[in-house]
# Entry
Amino acid sequence: MKKYKILSYLIVCFLLTGCSEDFLNRLPEDEISPEQYWKTDNDLKLFLNQFYTTFPVHNGWNGGVFEFDNNSDNLVPVNVNNRLVGNNNVAPSSDGSWNFGNIRSVNYYLENSHTAKGPEDIINHYNGEAYFFRAYFYFRLLKRYGGVPYIDKTLNTDSPELLTPRMPRNELATKIVEDLDRALNLLMPRSSAENFRVHRGVALAFKSEVCLYEGTWEKYHEGSPFGAETNESIKFLTLAADAAETMINEGNYQLYNDGSDDTYRLLFNKYDYNDVSEVIFWKKYSIEDGVIHRVSHYLPHTGAGTGLSKSLVESYLSSDGLPISVSPLYSEANENSLETVVSNRDPRLQQTICTPGDLITERAALDNIYFDFPAFRENGETVSTTGYQIYKGGATDEDERVESTTGSIIYRYAEVLLNFAEAKAELGTITQADLDKSVNVLRDRVGMPALTTLPVSDPNKLFPGVSDIINEIRRERRVELALEGKRFDDLMRWRAHDLIIGKRLVGFKIQGSDLEEEFADLIGNSILVNDQGYIDPYMNVIPSGYGFNKDRDYLSPIPTEQIVLSEGTLEQNPGW
# Structure
């Protein structure tokens, strides 16, 4: 029985195919045998290509990256998110995310890449890519499950490492950082690396992300069931700040700015980013190559089956740099229309949501189409759920609606600036000079007043348990990176369940607005409205709000079949 348990565990966890010992000792068909094929540096490149499909980019048939915040308090999708609701009450028997296949492939590469011959700097670069990807895959597991078994070599059917217990999360994070440091020592800079391949800048940006995530997780989860065995938050926050500051000081990246009033929005709908210094890494699409997506089918032409939340919209400062709760430029009257909602506000708000008069379809043979009303009369995948319809990331060219080829940004310099500011603030060492070379560079691009180390306190701040400066840096992160898929990770690492539990996301205040008469027949029917007149899509679905379980839902459960097959070496996550 034990023999079969080990074999099953091997198959499930490390994706070795087959059922006989002879077959299992053969190299997988999708791997290149070093004895037969790994003779040149190009062979290494071809092997590594398989990992590039794992980055989050625009998908083929949906709204792509700009709908990735559907799992957070930024967007309100048609279907409520199960994790936020707390509906996942039972650990599944299997889960495709508990997958070490790519890690095994990287380990296989690192054990055999020495057989290839070629220019030393090229081979070193490809080895750097491998270390980057091993860190990348382990970080995905860390975020989802916490500590996991750490395997850095290929295994056989009798390898004792098959029953490796979970490594403590801080130790696993250290292993990830060590791989990134190896990558940084081997990778070429962007100026020397081949287009569309991981380079030194990508690894530095990723290191700042990893270390900020782990540092804040360990800081805010200390004493909870999800805290690290040893709190090393200061170590990781220092590493995050150092990695980000290295990128800043090297001066190889600058924010995009075309000098227009629409420069922020225009960053996100370009077809080619090779000459855009802010974009560290991106994916190119091409009709000729058959690589397309349909982001522009949904954005900004339809509601895309989602919409910005009132919470996100309210995060944008007034144009005087003050929160709307204290700014004399904002009052309840601003909620009377979409035009007045964005009036005298951070320009990024108007460049993120559709407002009357925005160009949404540019046509050569017919008149252009401009935004008038939210897509309340659409259905399913095209309906606007909140009235705050997405403008950011949508191309307006009519031809783009069928076969979209706008590029997909994977890493951009703006996030590095935010990582630096947050890490320094969390360490308690942030200075005005630090803000001026990070957050204030972002604000200057859109003409917003600078942030100081002693900001005006927002009486409605989302995080009353931390300092005003940390609140404002978190606000800046939310606004600058809105809809780019970062918010869920932020909520998890900040232990921000108070923003989730018992909350119900709402949208535009339609009653009393200039849209009320136009959609009077829908209000109370397909447009649900709460007592205050705000669109309330989940009124009937979760009347008591989200049921996120703070003692369980911060991490996903390890599949139960893996617990059984581990013969007691794997412990389940808290609450499952």
